Amino acid sequence: HHGPGRLKPFWLTVVSEQRPTDSIPPPQPSANMRKTALITGITGQDGSYLAELLLEKEYEVHGIMRRSSSFNTSRIDHIFDRIKLHYGDLVDSSNLCSIMAKVKPDEVYNLGAQSHVAVSFCEPEYTAQTDGVGTLRLLEAIRTCGLEKSTRFYQASTSELYGLVQEVPQKETTPFYPRSPYAVAKLYGFWIVKNYREAYGMYALNGILFNHESPRRGGTFVTKKVTAAVASIMAGKQERIVLGNLDSLRDWGHARDYVRAMWMM
């Protein structure tokens, strides 16, 4: 039995908005001309799997990564020489416009974000700038480069939009009730994508993603926290596992399946 406030997603863990034009088929690789894709968050779990998928489909793959004093490319090292990376940040609009003008992508996948709910309470302004306004900056970069009629835009949205759930299971028409700075920032991203689609006729959509995992999942998320703690306990390095809310209910999928859904949308 699932009481009020508990999240029990439905069987399909990706909620997609209706396509702007239902007659437009999913993108297919062309025999004569390679499609070009630009991925924000390419060094993350989803970004790395999506890059692999698009390379398999013979795309030219570009990615945006933040400058750091140490390399954080471990998830894409095996495809490093097959992709093109650009230093950039979702808080820097001039940089994003420059990259967009140079790459002229057929498809943009916005997977970059400050994606940790707990951290969003510590860094609410940065989370808003990256996850919310960052989405706007990408859409504006597409529009100001004159690509709004030719570039498809995918926004990685989140089940955190539902927050204090208003119905179980959730569907596309379930009211949103975000309960963290992360969720509120993502809600702005969701609506600005919808607004740009309706205002400018852009092929822009949101995929509402529920929890998904893989061996590339970050160590601060619950599955990796549990497995790492179990290994430490077995090695005699710690005695117990410390977790947060144990009452949450989630549906889990695999990141590789999720990125295929992104491409199909």
TrEMBL record:
Which key words are in the record? Lyase
Instruction: List each copy of the NAD(P)-binding domain by range.
Output: 38-265
Quote the PANTHER family the UniProt record gives.
Answer: GDP-MANNOSE 4,6 DEHYDRATASE, GDP-MANNOSE 4,6-DEHYDRATASE
Checking NCBIfam families in the record gives: gmd
Q: Which InterPro entries match?
A: GDP_Man_deHydtase, NAD(P)-bd_dom, NAD(P)-bd_dom_sf
Question: Its domain of life?
Answer: Eukaryota
- GO biological process, alphabetically ordered: 'de novo' GDP-L-fucose biosynthetic process
Q: Which family does it belong to?
A: Belongs to the NAD(P)-dependent epimerase/dehydratase family. GDP-mannose 4,6-dehydratase subfamily.
In Swiss-Prot or TrEMBL terms, this protein is called GDP-mannose 4,6-dehydratase
Q: Name one GO molecular function term.
A: GDP-mannose 4,6-dehydratase activity
State its Enzyme Commission number(s): 4.2.1.47
List cofactor names only. NADP(+)
